[in-house]
Amino acid sequence: MLVGWLYRDTRDLQAESGLGYALGVISASCMLILLIYPVRKRIRLLKFIGPVRNWFRIHMMLGVLAPLTALYHCNFQLGSLNSQVALYSALIVAGSGLIGRFLYAKIHSGLYGRRTNLKQIRENVRLTSPSGGAAMRFMPELMSRMNRFDREVLETGRGVLASSWLLLRLTVKTRLEYRSLMRFARSQIAAEARQSSLIADHQRRLLRSVRSFVAKHMLQVRRLAKLQAYDQLFALWHLVHLPFFIALVLTVIVHVFAVHIY
Fold first, then answer.
1. What pTM, to 2 d.p., does this model score?
2. 178/158 Cα distance (integer angstroms)
């Protein structure tokens, strides 16, 4: 794209004829084909045209190809008002699509994989204390602290700002909380070890058990919090991308009509 813009004055591309016109036809055709994916996803009777997964791939590829060919169609130069609106709409939708692709990959096991199951991950986030019996008298307080952290990161407000802010600070926040919890656990085990020779003999084993328990739980909580945040952002993205896409189709139709009539 950068090369195309830098050498735009060395080409003799005309949007009204020849290769430039052909590129415009290709761009408009790609935009129309983009409509197939949302229609196929919502209408099961169209399953004979192929699986949704394949149309999703085509949708993403054409979402990049359509604005790219549109840029070469106009030779990276702005024309009339209706052509400018059509071009800007295509670029906005393409940018929005790239953001959507990023969010989609974050909430699926693979780019074209199955959606990660939030419910299943929530079931894995359980506070089951490690074995230790009476030697682990401090565990109720430790688990209470972990519960407070869980509520803080998992019960965030909905919205772009809340979800984005959580994603930005979640890794650092989780690590800081992990260190705080381990400082508390070490101090409690050390205090009990001073009062009991049996606990003193098994102090390292108890500490390893608590460390493993806290680390595994914090990892699951962080994963769930990230997934919930990305899931909220993806839902909000859908609300924005669809109107942009509809506006793109309408502006292209108006552009084609205006060019051929006037």
1. 0.71
2. 25
